[in-house]
Amino acid sequence: MAKKDDRLFIRLDIGMPEHPKIEGLSDKAFRALVETWCWCGRNPKINGHIKRASWVKRGTPAVRRELIDAGLFNDDGEHGAHVHDWDSWQRTWDEIRESKQEKADAGAFGAHQRWHVKRSIRDDACEFCKPKASAIGQG
């Protein structure tokens, strides 16, 4: 079995460089855009919101203004900035947590199948081995 790739990713449409909001950006603004998107992807709990202290480190004031004027970021004033439509293109923190939980649940059920069901072993500590509550007699 091939090793799973556990790197973090952001979603990027292959036509992104030709999008009208992107096409007119300067090279510096384009680089700041991609680097900031990647930074947000590495910090998924922020859901595309960049605090002021970090936002002011993202390129020059002119580059940040270019990104805001292009409609790629929303200026949150003293609070920083927010990637425009982040949650339309990227997974939110809640979606990431839900996905991780689903995978953990599936792994636990798979382990139950392998170690308990296939071996006809019942383990009272296993949530899947516990008998389900019957609806009979409950009213």
Alpha plus pi helix count: 6
Q: How many β strands by DSSP?
A: 3
Beta-strand percentage range: 5-15%
The N- and C-terminal alpha carbons lie at a distance of 50 Å
The shape is: elongated
Tally of separate domains: 2
What value does the average pLDDT take?
86
| Helicity level | 40-55%
Radius of gyration: 23 Å
Order of helices and strands: HHEHHEEHH
Q: What structural class should be given to the helix and strand makeup?
A: mainly alpha
Segments where pLDDT lies below 50 for 5+ residues?
A: none
What strand line-up does the widest sheet have?
1-3-2
For the report, how would you describe the main beta sheet? Answer: 3 strands, antiparallel
What's the arrangement of secondary structure elements?
Layout: H1 20-23, H2 27-42, E1 49-51, H3 52-55, H4 61-69, E2 73-75, E3 80-83, H5 86-89, H6 93-117
Antiparallel strand pairs: 1-3, 2-3
